């Protein structure tokens, strides 16, 4: 029962955040100022596209989906420890195990991860991983609050307003606190290819120093320098 409710809220919150993402895109992140009525009301296709886009990892929907579901279920199982260790009703263990610890850890450590794994495909898993951790936390919190009232409502609102805006910026491919979560391509292979090409060019066309004896213009000298006038007086 709890697993079914968890998956239901996972899809529900994913679609809700996708709706916010779409309207934030057209209101704040788009240069377009005039929209047709259909663009503001008929948004089902765009919302579904945004939701499915988070499941991709560098164009691979299998790896992205597994990462998203894996991180979401991991957060749900982690939240169950609060019910096992704590008592019935709102308690300290319930709130501790519902804190978005893993979401915040990945969010703030991403600059270090990006620098360490620059140009690798592992960075493409960041978006589905962050989305799974955030939506999994919100879904597990909704299940525990709805069934057993194990969380305070204000605490759950804090979880929502802490993670949902980050997902909106993330799904709109916008920088968050000056950090871009979109993987950048690596040009190391191109640099190696250019160096190899330059090396081959030097082997084919070696640059030998010019021999002054073989230079036909070596004995010629300029009849006038910078201070001389090349034109005769009759042209003045």
TrEMBL record:
Domain of life of the organism encoding this protein? Bacteria
Q: Which UniProt keywords apply?
A: Membrane, Transmembrane, Transmembrane helix
Q: Where is the composition biased (Acidic residues)?
A: 191-200, 210-222
* Protein's recorded name: Uncharacterized protein
**Region Disordered: start-end pairs:** 185-236
- The species is Leptospira yanagawae serovar Saopaulo str. Sao Paulo = ATCC 700523
The portions of this protein that span the membrane are 61-84, 96-113, 151-171
